[in-house]
Design a protein that fits this description.
Blueprint lengths: L5 H20 L4 H31 L12 H4 L3 H8 L9 H8 L5 H14 L7 H4 L17 H17 L9 H20 L10 H11 L9 E3 L6 H10 L8 E5 L2 H13 L7 E5 L16 E2 L30 E2 L2 E2 L6 H6 L13 H17 L35
Parallel strand pairs: 1-2, 1-4, 2-3
Antiparallel strand pairs: 5-6
């Protein structure tokens, strides 16, 4: 008997997903194979997302039998520019997940086909505002890896099974709550892979219960926030809990974060797309927040949350470069029994370099340093966000909304019927 309640259906979906993931990987370690399952799930999602978007535009215009997947690539190319401006990417009809899957078993060069498809999807965003959000998203889905098999034939056999299995997942009609199902499937897979990986899993995934608790504590008494930020965002699960708690439209200027691990950074961007957070509403950066913060001029953030890897070694005052970092310098130079730390330049040396932190005793007059720090923060908030990747108008209105002249729908292909 098929499950009837929402909870039972979700449990059944989770069981199916995990069975498929284990059956597919064979001798490949689950941690290594996660990129293939998650990457192919993402490929299916953006294919169905784009198809539903274009179909809706044509159906609203009265062409009720239209299906984007049935077009030729040359017919679809007419709308490519407008679709990329709205969705951030473009997929030719012949390269949609459903069409590639249908031909997969007969395609002796399936690995080359998929490699071309992934490159074309990323290339569609080159030179546009979404380029950084799409770049490298499929890097971890290496269709020519020996992990899939020792020969091309064996690898293609595995890829066919992967396409079939992901295509068979009961994620429903895209227009009917599919966003929740895709997002839930992705979250479940990450949770399972993290638990199997042991301690290292915590570096890229925060348990859903912890994420939701942190998000709810942060927004107590609020119905909306301007934007949310996680300086160690992992796969983005903590950021996305704000979309669940407040509703994604109530995070008015979007989701910001930084992640040091490249694979995890890619997972975070995929996670945003799978939860239907469009490219202009998230700004994720790859790098070390402590030494090279990417969102310096995007502040102030109304909500900041993090579950950082506390076991990571931090140089602290052992690194002389950090003495001049205005985020840390107000705290002063650490001393031991009134002596200067030999690894840190003394105040006279700093004064010779014109360093403002050397203006007075480091461990005295903290109120003066705090006063200067407050002035610096206030001044920073008054400056234009010249380095902000998301150009936001007052009141949260995005430039994205002004790219298209009124009345022009990028989904209308105007192709010959």
């Amino acid at each position: 008997m098929a499950p009837t309640t929402k909870e039972a259906q979700r449990a059944e979906l989770h069981k199916t997903i995990w069975r498929i993931a284990n059956d597919l990987r064979g001798s490949v370690d689950g941690w290594d194979f996660k990129s293939y399952v998650l990457g192919m799930l993402f490929y299916r999602f953006i294919s169905e997302n784009l198809t539903a978007y274009v179909n809706a535009g044509e159906h609203e215009s009265g062409n009720t039998t239209f299906d984007y997947g049935d077009l030729t690539d040359s017919q679809a190319q007419i709308a490519m520019r407008g679709i990329v401006e709205e969705k951030g990417f473009f997929i030719f009809p012949s390269e949609l997940f459903s069409n590639v899957r249908e031909r997969a078993a007969r395609d002796q060069n399936l690995n080359e086909t998929l490699e071309r498809v992934f490159k074309n999807i990323e290339a569609s965003a080159v030179g546009t505002d979404s380029e950084d959000d799409l770049k490298g998203l499929f890097d971890d889905l290496d269709v020519n890896s020996s992990k899939l098999g020792p020969t091309v034939a064996k690898r293609n056999e595995k890829l066919v099974k992967l396409l079939e299995a992901i295509g068979d997942l009961p994620l429903g009609n895209f227009g009917d709550n599919t966003i929740d199902l895709f997002g839930d499937a992705y979250e479940y897979l990450m949770q399972m892979y993290a638990s199997q990986a042991g301690k290292s899993g915590g570096e890229y995934y925060t348990p859903q219960e912890v994420s939701e608790l942190l998000a709810r504590i942060t927004v107590v008494g609020k119905t909306s926030v301007n934007k949310v930020y996680d300086p160690a965002c992992g796969s983005g699960s903590l950021l996305l809990k704000f979309a669940k708690v407040l509703g994604k439209d109530n995070v008015r200027q979007g989701f910001f974060g930084q992640e040091i691990n490249l694979t995890t950074f890619n997972l975070a961007r995929i996670n945003m797309f799978l939860h239907d957070i469009n490219f202009e509403m998230f700004n994720l950066a790859h790098g070390d927040t402590l030494t090279d913060p990417a969102h310096w001029d995007d502040q102030p953030f109304e909500a900041i949350v993090s579950n950082p890897p506390y076991s990571i070694k931090w140089d602290g005052d052992a690194n002389p470069l950090l003495i001049n970092d205005e985020r840390y310098s107000p705290a002063g130079v650490s001393r031991r029994c009134g002596t200067q730390d030999p690894q840190v330049p003394d105040r006279q040396q700093l004064r010779g370099r014109g360093d403002p932190a050397a203006a007075g005793p480091v461990l005295r007059h903290h109120d003066r340093h705090l006063h200067h720090r407050v002035e610096e923060v206030e001044d920073r908030q008054r400056r234009p966000l010249h380095r902000c990747l998301r150009r936001v108008h007052p009141h949260g209105q995005q430039e994205q909304a002004h790219r298209r002249p009124p009345g022009q729908d990028p989904r209308r292909l105007h192709h010959p019927h």
